[in-house]
Amino acid sequence: MKILLIQLYTGTECELVYPIGLSYLSTALSAHTVRIFDQNLCESPFLETEKIISAFSPEVVGFSIKNIHIYSIKKGYFNSDKVLSLSIDAIKKASGRICIVTGGPGFYMFPFHFMQNEPRTNFGILLEGEETFPQLLENLDSPEKVKGVYWRNGGEIFLQAGLRLQILK
Question: What's the pLDDT at 168?
Fold first, then answer.
């Protein structure tokens, strides 16, 4: 399977940080054809995203949401929402049939928020993607078999927490 892993754009005010999490994840996905794209290295991250999708033609795109920029929680403004939405717009413009997976530390902090506010996201991964993402790829039609995954069914959002979240207690 062809998979594109994207480090979500964090804005010009943030320092560039190597996407180490996506590097670990790509190693865990070695049975697949994987590319990593850091939107922070581009002047036009959404245009470049569209170009990469067109050239690579992945079946799955995984986003790492690293930072959360909350300007006013009362107004519900998350900068990461807008960036994720623009990124998915670019993906869908290039190819409408791509499975979208979100994860990363920013997603972990507000998973239901991201799932609820971006309905084009098919799956969300909690905790360690190196463990969960390969299992999810084997069970895209049965995500309830994979612990630590959010998914959609009939417009509703579900979580298969399983035993993994007991670690947090």
Answer: 43
Element (H, E) at 70: strand 70-72
Residue 36 DSSP one-character state: E
* CA–CA distance, 98 with 157 (Å, rounded to integer): 19
Q: How open is the CA angle 57-153-167, to the nearest 5 degrees?
A: 90
Question: What's the total number of domains in the chain?
Answer: 1
- Written as one letter, the residue type at 21 is G
Higher pLDDT residue, 78 or 43?
A: 43
Could you tell me the CATH number of the domain that includes residue 94? 3.40.50.2300
**Phi/psi of residue 44, nearest 5 degrees:** -125, 80
% of the chain exceeding 90 in pLDDT = 61
Q: For residues 61 and 101, what is the distance between their CA atoms, to the nearest angstrom?
A: 6
pLDDT (tens digit per residue) in 12-35: 666 777 788 899 999 999 999 999
Domain that holds residue 149: 2-164
Written as six digits, the tokens of 124 are 């969300």
Structure tokens at 23: 């590097």
Q: 146 phi and psi, to 5 degrees? A: -110, 120
Only one residue has tokens 């590097």, namely 23
